[in-house]
Design goal:
With 552 residues, the chain is an alpha+beta fold. Helix content is 60%, strand content 16%. It is built from 13 helices and 8 strands. The strands form 2 sheets. The protein has a 6-stranded antiparallel sheet, with no helix packed on it. Strands 1-4 form a two-stranded parallel sheet. The N terminus is likely disordered.
Length: 552
Amino acid sequence: MFTMSLSQAFCQNGVSFAQVPISKEEYANKEELKMDDKAQRRDPAPEIGKTVKKESVPEKIILNRKRIDEKRKRSRETQLNRELGIVDMKGDSKKEAQIYTLNDCMEIAIENHLPLQIAKKSMKLAEMRLFEARRNLLPTATLAWEESVGKISGRYYTGKKEYVEGQQPLFRGGELYFTMKQAEVNLEVMKNDHNRISNELVLQVKKAYYTLAKSKENLILQKELSKEVEKILDMLTKQADAGIAPKLEVLNVASQASQARYQLVSAEGDVSVAELILKQAMNIDSKEKIDVADSEVKFKKIKIDFENALNAAMMNRPDLKVNTLMFEYYRYGTRIAKAKGWPKIDLLGSWGLAKEEFLSRDMADTDADQELKPQWYVGVKTSMPFWGSTGEYSLTKEEWVPVVSTTRGTAATTNSVKLKILDKLDYYSGKQLAEIDFDRSRQELNKVKQDIALEIKESCFNYEKALVQWETASNKVKYQEKDLELVRLKRGFDEAQDSNVIDSMIRLAQEKFGYVQAIADCHIAVATLNKAIGVEDYFRDESELKMRGILK
């Protein structure tokens, strides 16, 4: 049989491949089509009777566009996450979950928390403002160099000046000094505000961590319970098919199995939600797979005294420090406002070299170039506000080199008096506003002290309640374990049914979860108390240190 290739057929008809028009989309995928043709040449010939399905060019174009769109979408998401400060740690979607200790979670959260980054920048800004306030106490100086060319009375002239001028505040009523002290207080406020944000973030991470840990522990309990109930249901179903077990008992156990499955699904949902909350607290990508280092929650009892905790809070609480510093900050504000009503005295001065002379090209006989000669001035400027107006007085003594319009230099002593009518009315409103801010800061300080005392009291009370719940849950677990042993023993003697055993198992799982939840509540209560005190590890136990990876 004679066969003819596609290229030969085109050539016989007078058409070559080079003459076939190609669209832009086909041209964009030209290299990809070539690679597909080479791959087909390497493949063995298809069997007779079978057709080979070849992907059409439009389908390739669609797939290529989809890949490009996906790349652009991922790029936009990465850029958006970077701008929002969300750390993208997902990498490979099939990658196993990374295991974090409590300490790891806190370190990552502190590193990625945007308010903390803003607080650090605010501290940097406060340092700049403090430097500016200190600089205002020192004299200001200006270096100047001037050259001039002009024409007067039909003749050209040139001039040159090199001088330095400065100003030194002699007396401002303490305004500059109090402004510097206020800037120092503001820097301390920013530092303590940073500690306040960090303190709140640590509590948020600990709550999320312990919530995830107890949710995972509950999930383990529910998996074991569901597995045991399913075994009993399968056994009972086989007995019912054999006519040994009653149908009513099978239906009852089937209902209990459904309840166990429902609790398992709820536990899985709780783990997912708790994991998402922890990711949000750590400010990492929600698609990242994470796991806690040890889901088994333990606790060692700590002795806590209210008076000791309250005294520690009054010494270490960042909120209290911030409000105390704000009280001092506004106190300096009132002093600054009062200082604006005092006289201001500034010392002014300038010294330099200068000359001014005609150009020799305008004269038949040339003059020798003049040398630079010294010129200077010194003065005192004062101003005094009164009744909303400002009175100014200045005394200046000066000596200048001669200019082309004069034959000699000038020396003079000048006294100047000015009265600006009602230009300082804002002095009284500014003073009143400063006093209002000061009183408000005093009220806020008293309120914060009361709130801290109440928060410490509530935290201590919550810790005591958590301890009672822990002891109660421990006793309930022991009782339910004994009850389950007794019911199983009765079932062995055929004095109880399988549904009774399952009921006891379900109650035991619930009591065990209550015990784990009580332990988590104890940890959260201690963390809340530490946050109220303002020290991260003021109260801590060995079990938490192990969870943080500090102790082994």
